[in-house]
Amino acid sequence: MVAACSDFRVEHDLVLEAHGFRLEPLAQQHVSDLARMVDADLWAGMSAPLPEGEVGMMNYIEDSLALPGCLPFAVVDLVDGQVRGSTALVDHHPEARRVEIGRTFYDRAVWGRVINPASKFLLLQHAFEGLGVYRVALRADARNTRSLGAIERLGATREGLLRGYRDDRDGTRVDSVSFSILEPEWPEIRERLLNRLDPLRSIEASMPPLASVGASVTSEVVQEVADALLQHGPVPVPPRAAARRQRRARRRRR
Amino acid sequence: MEHDLVLTGHGVRLEPLGVQHAAALAPLVDAEMWRGMTSPLPDDEAAMTAHVERLVATPAMVAFAVRDEHTDGSPVVGVTTYYDVASAMGRCEIGNTFYGRAVWGTHVNPAAKLLLLTHAFEDWGLARVALRGDARNARSLAAMRKLGARYEGTLRDHRVSADGTRQDTVYFSILAAEWPTVRDGLLARLGDAG
């Protein structure tokens, strides 16, 4: 029996961009950047076999494009234009209004930073608001505490343990934990993501409104602002926060 | 997808599903039994032909018509499939199954499961076979438990059922190490000496 995967090769032209990152259609132009960032340890949680070198990554990209119901992306950091990873919407069943987020890996250099919440925000927003799905599933290896933690931090609901789901490098089977987010849950999850992506957002939301453009700064207003800042604690100002504030200021001026 | 796999034994024959089976299959289904399926009820030949065509066209799905060889003429009594066959990942699922009421409680379902699971574990060498069902379908869930499959979780609002409502999908699986016990259970049910 042979499955004719190549019959289903589909290129898409969807670009999703916000919060300092762009998800653009995965293509062979990304092969060198992606091949360079991958090693066996980084690939440990992935379903597909480790792509070896550029040839391996070319095949991985072709496989991604040939998967039915799959929209694969390269993730680009808008500040420096670097390709920093790849992710995908997979297993889209429009009639059942469901899709999965998967095939995700990022450059080690950006682990623990905003690339994942930004990518998840863009994919979830497109899934619920663009594709109009009701359900988004996510999975991670039962032993991949980093990935599990990231999914839990999103606010997804854990649904089950898929036993012996795939092979590990040493030939043992590993379990996979399955999660989902449903459409009624998206607004709250969206808020959580936006607050993570913009640390000032929740502070601004809790700040008192200015009475008018010409309002004088009274001691009461100063105290309220100080209280809000104290409540939220010190705000770290990573370099990109300055760029984001500039972009927000430009948008407000429009 | 198109295939040429035939599985026989224990009083059933599983052969590649095709539109030629639609006429025999259409009279077997009714709304009550179709409630847990995720496609519209195919209770006339045209609708059943469309249903069969959809199954045959689905990638990574191996669809069978099931014949009852214990009855004269070996009539077609239902459909079953492997799906999400991912041999590189060592796994597949069994589902999209229905049988006419006349063969409920007979050898047909256990025999078909025995053939499908034997082929999956012993010929394809898979590590995992999963089965899913509509959370409302108590009969189906009981059958999976009776098989010896293990419950893994419930996928919330996963499926759109034949009546258009969203329902939960329950997820069961059998692992390769569990297969011998499952096989022995099926053989005992079928009354074979082993």
Automatic annotation (TrEMBL), chain A:
Residues 242-254 have a biased composition (Basic residues). Residues 29-184 form the N-acetyltransferase domain. One of its GO terms (molecular function) is acyltransferase activity, transferring groups other than amino-acyl groups. Signal peptide: none annotated. Keywords: Transferase. InterPro entries: Acyl_CoA_acyltransferase, GNAT_dom. Residues 232-254 are annotated as: Disordered. It comes from the Bacteria. This is Protein N-acetyltransferase, RimJ/RimL family. The lineage of its organism: Bacteria, Bacillati, Actinomycetota, Actinomycetes, Micrococcales.
Automatic annotation (TrEMBL), chain B:
Gene3D superfamilies: 3.40.630.30. Residues 13-150 form the N-acetyltransferase domain. One of its GO terms (molecular function) is acyltransferase activity, transferring groups other than amino-acyl groups. InterPro entries: Acyl_CoA_acyltransferase (IPR016181), GNAT_dom (IPR000182). It comes from the Bacteria. Keywords: Transferase. Pfam families: Acetyltransf_3. SUPFAM superfamilies: Acyl-CoA N-acyltransferases (Nat). PANTHER family: BLL6696 PROTEIN, N-ACETYLTRANSFERASE DOMAIN-CONTAINING PROTEIN. This is Protein N-acetyltransferase, RimJ/RimL family. The lineage of its organism: Bacteria, Bacillati, Actinomycetota, Actinomycetes, Micrococcales.
